[in-house]
Write a structure and sequence with these properties.
Chain lengths: ~260, ~250
């Protein structure tokens, strides 16, 4: 993600953070304003748009009948894909998904999968033969930092918004019936990302903070305060005690957000 | 292929392969195994068999990727089609692309990247046989290959996983434990700097369980670190002896 930031600004951001302040006036552990809009794409079974400050992500959910994986014959399939569309940042280029978009998709996927947010066993039509495949497509529309938290939030909001058509399954054929029902959702994971700048941990980095960070760590926290997925990124390191501090921060922040969202 | 064992830990507290919860699998390391690479290493970690080769610093390809103030590190983690039970397509999967990225990011903090502007360092990792914990074994081997190539480093990087199976926190999960167990936490460490350079997790752990898993993994890293240093020493002692013999002749 090749966008440039001047040395002067790098220094300014780092020095401010060292004093516990941020360029945009937030405290080190404050999130930017979060806005969630659900059901914005009528053609998709479920959709949501998340605005995290100026970062903007849309997620659409599509459901189709398909084949299960051989190691989980009686479970539906969850597929997460992420597109860093070129209009979202001067650093994004068209073409097949690069390592950044693949990593983003896999972090979102892991949060949902490992927390068992989606009850995939209820999406089985005929064990080993036919199940429902839930496609979660993350579309980044404007990149102003912390795509991970925004995407994870949007993906969960879209899944909660998803309506499956009622159906009848007979002789290997799925017949749609009138009426809708929600997806079987069991958990509501929330992903919290911290970055290390100097020796401080900063929650919800915006773009310029991501450009000066040493490393980042994202943790997905489920409804019972358990950690269900972690990803460290960036070419820096954390001390073990900073890792544990990040876990504590993630727990606190996810609780706050859960309360606000009523998840 | 669906014979999931009922229990991963028996009544005596031993695991499927007879290990104690805090016991590593046997680790064998060898440095300088490829004649063409600038640095190379081979690791056998349990049944994992992994080769790592380093080329560079060398000319950047494609040229526009060159950086004016530091080297570009590239990493390719790749699994051989025959390395797993069901043949894996040789085309890089999304998993391999993600692992290539996290392995690179776990090694970069160790390299003095600013010493080699406008160049590129290529790290190639080939998994010949996989049995759980390949990313960790790959990092351990790749760090040795980097050291073997003579690139200045702040420390070696060593990696090991811990996790939870049957409600017990265990060290160094093998394939079945990884698949059936409830959590897997791979950790990479630069022991002298006490710096964690890779941390991932999937599964479900409470914060307390997470802390003990990370601490256990760090202990495992330190054990493998001793083997890493030994492997490097072995190579250079053997070179010294060769030279001595030549001088005597």
């Amino acid at each position: 993600m090749a966008t440039v930031i001047t040395r002067v600004k790098q220094k300014q951001i780092t020095q401010l953070i060292d004093k516990g302040k941020r360029l945009d006036g937030r405290g080190l552990t404050d999130y930017r304003e979060i806005k969630i809009e659900q059901g914005i794409i009528e053609k998709a079974e479920g959709s949501a748009k998340v605005l995290l400050g100026k970062t903007e992500v849309v997620v659409g959910v599509k459901i189709e009948a398909g084949e299960p994986f051989s190691d989980t014959p009686n479970e539906g399939v969850l597929t997460v894909n992420a597109e860093l569309v070129p209009l979202a940042s001067p650093g994004f280029e068209p073409g097949p998904p690069d390592e950044n978009s693949i990593e983003l998709a896999r972090i979102v996927d892991r949060g949902i999968r490992e927390s068992k947010a989606l009850d995939t066993e209820k999406l089985c039509l005929e064990p080993g033969k036919k199940v429902f495949v839930v496609f979660v497509d993350v579309y980044v529309l404007n990149h102003d930092g912390n795509l991970i938290d925004a995407s994870a939030l949007a993906a969960m909001a879209a899944l909660l918004n998803t309506k499956m058509g009622k159906y009848e399954y007979k002789d290997g054929e799925v017949k749609m019936k009138p009426g809708y029902e929600p997806l079987p959702i069991k958990k509501h994971p929330i992903t919290v990302t911290c970055v290390k700048i100097g020796d401080k941990l900063v929650v919800d980095p915006w773009l310029e903070e991501e450009q000066v960070m040493d490393a980042r760590i994202s943790m997905a926290i489920d409804d019972d305060d358990n950690i269900c997925a972690i990803q460290k990124g960036g070419s820096g390191y954390f001390e073990p005690k900073q890792v544990f501090e990040a876990a504590k921060l993630a727990k606190e922040k996810s609780r706050e957000m859960r309360k606000k969202l009523n998840w | 292929m669906n014979d999931k064992p009922e229990k991963l830990i028996d009544k005596k507290g031993l695991r499927l392969d007879g290990r104690k919860p805090d016991e590593l699998r046997p680790v064998k390391l060898q440095v300088g195994v490829l004649s063409n690479a600038d640095g190379s290493a081979y690791i056998e970690h349990g049944k994992n068999k992994i080769l790592a080769g380093v080329y560079g610093p060398r000319e950047v390809h494609p040229k526009h990727l060159a950086l004016p103030d530091r080297t570009v590190v590239k990493c390719r983690y790749h699994m051989a089609p025959f390395s797993v039970q069901e043949r894996k397509s040789p085309a890089p999967s999304r998993r391999e692309i993600e692992l290539s990225k996290v392995i690179r990011e776990s090694l970069e903090p160790a390299i003095f990247m600013e010493y080699y502007p406008r160049t590129m360092i290529d790290i190639f990792v080939e998994v010949l046989q996989a049995d759980g914990g390949t990313r960790c074994a790959a990092i351990t081997a790749a760090a040795l290959a980097l050291a073997d190539s003579g690139i200045p480093m702040r420390d070696l990087v060593v990696a090991c996983a811990a996790g939870k199976v049957d409600d017990t926190i265990v060290l160094d999960l093998m394939d079945t434990e990884d698949k059936v167990g409830s959590a897997d936490v791979p950790v990479a460490l630069m022991p002298n700097l006490n710096a964690v350079t890779l941390l991932q997790m999937d599964g479900t752990l409470s914060t307390d369980e997470f802390e003990s898993a990370v601490n256990l993994a760090l202990e495992g890293c330190k054990q493998i670190y001793a083997l890493q240093k030994e492997a490097l020493r072995t190579k250079y002692v053997s070179i010294k002896e060769e030279n001595k013999e030549e001088a005597e002749e």
